[in-house]
Amino acid sequence: MTLADEVRTARPGTSTTGTSTASVVVRRVRDDEHPAAADVLVSAYTHDFEVSESYRQSLGAVGRWASEHEVWVAVPHAEADAGHGTTRVLGVVVTPALGGPALSPLALDGELDFRLLATHPDARGGGVGETLVRHVIGLARDRGARHVVMNSGDQMRAAHRLYERLGFQRLYERETRVVETKQGPTRLLAFGLDVAGTDARAHAGTSTDVRDGRP
Question: Would you say the C-alpha torsion 142, 146, 152, 156 has a positive or negative sign?
Answer without folding.
Answer: positive
